[in-house]
Amino acid sequence: MVNHTATSVVTIERFIVEQERMMPLATGELSGILYDLALAAKMISNKVRSAGLADVLGATDHTNVQGEVQQKLDVLANEILIKALDHGGRLCAMGSEEEPELIPIPEMFKQGRYAVLFDPLDGSSNIDVNVPVGTIFSIVKKVSKGPRGELADLLQPGVAQVAAGYVIYGSSTMMVYTTGQGVHGFTLDPMLGEFLLSHQSMCIPQTGRYLSVNDSYEQLWSDNVKSLMRRYRGLDGKRDPMSVRYVGSLVADFHRNLFGGGIFAYPSNRKSPQGKLRLLYEASPLAFIVEQAGGAASDGTRRILDIEPHELHQRTPLFIGSKLDVDTAIEFLRT
Ligand code: FBP
């Protein structure tokens, strides 16, 4: 891999091509999907950044398959992604947090060899209060034998991902992705309208400063989870206390911890035995990224990437971040 210096101007398109050249069997289709996702990210970024000025704030009167009221920007981001991805001839199917079923590729377009799953706007309940939100995506290869995409193409374990990434719409817009060759970050230059390489080969510290958890659920947690949180807070005297940071946008909390180290935890609780977060388009893509950055991701007992999905919108408990801090979670939760 070319190690770009701070002075080299490397667009995401150039970087994608360089990575493709290192894959002898590459056909360019995966590169094409990453270009389409980068374009969609720019369009969503424009909408999010001008949200206060345009009539895109607030909720619709629709509820999605998760039982959540859809925000106007949820629907807009979902449409932007579908339109950016459906015509390139590279996909056989899509899956979205905002769509109850598999999204087929219209018959008028060529059917492709890949499928993409996405959370169009993660943390969308934070949009109206100008808190960072994100987009999360996961790319897998078609496994079904038929001419068109099938649910089996979407229901694949995390280890089957060929690429995964997220976009954070924060103080700047950044796209961070992996194709299994490390984790790389690109910052959108609003003047040029280009994603430029700003963080090559990102790595997460082995243990870290930050604990990201919504502890208002504490009374619903198991005793093991309560003991685990006491450990992270240094209350059992076994480590220095971690500093609590919780934005309530998974992408924003994950992104911070990727730099400073630490753990994001969304344990199961008596009301949500499977936790809240979705396996296929939230936990699994971020697990691929964190492992490529030297970290880890678990549901408390299993490696997230090894979980065999059986439903498009299935949920999972999630402990993700620095390896040693995730190991601590597994140590407490296996007892
Ligand atoms: P969506 O907005 O995509 O539904 O994501 C779920 C989410 O908002 C995560 O971003 C965040 O980590 C979590 O839910 C916050 O949940 P809670 O309010 O229960 O802490």
* Distinct ligands, ions and cofactors found in the model: 1,6-di-O-phosphono-beta-D-fructofuranose
Poorly predicted regions are: none
- Find the CATH superfamily of the largest domain: Fructose-1,6-Bisphosphatase, subunit A, domain 1
Q: Tell me, what's the shape?
A: globular
Give the helices and strands as they follow along the chain.
Answer: HHEEHEEEEHEEEEEHEHEHEEH
Q: What would the CATH topology of the largest domain be? A: Fructose-1,6-Bisphosphatase, Chain A, domain 1
In total, the number of strands is 15
Please describe the biggest sheet, giving its number of strands, its sense, and whether it closes into a barrel: 8 strands, mixed
Helix content: 25-40%
- CATH secondary-structure class of the largest domain: Alpha Beta
Strand order of the largest sheet: 4-3-5-6-7-8-9-10
Average of pLDDT = 95
Computed CA radius of gyration, to the nearest angstrom: 19 Å
Name the CATH architecture of the largest domain.
2-Layer Sandwich
Explained architecture:
By secondary structure, this protein is of the alpha+beta class. It folds into two domains: 12-199, Fructose-1,6-Bisphosphatase, Chain A, domain 1 (2-Layer Sandwich), CATH 3.30.540; 210-333, D-Maltodextrin-Binding Protein, domain 2 (3-Layer(aba) Sandwich). Helix content is 28%, strand content 24%. The protein has an eight-stranded mixed sheet with strand order 4-3-5-6-7-8-9-10, with helices on both faces. Strands 12-11-13-15-14 form a five-stranded mixed sheet, with helices on both faces. A two-stranded antiparallel ribbon has the order 1-2. Helix 1 packs antiparallel against helix 2, helix 2 (29-49) packs antiparallel against helix 3 (72-85) and helix 5 packs antiparallel against helix 8. The longest helix is centred in the N-terminal third of the chain and has 21 residues, at 29-49. The protein is globular and about 60 Å long. The mean pLDDT is 95.
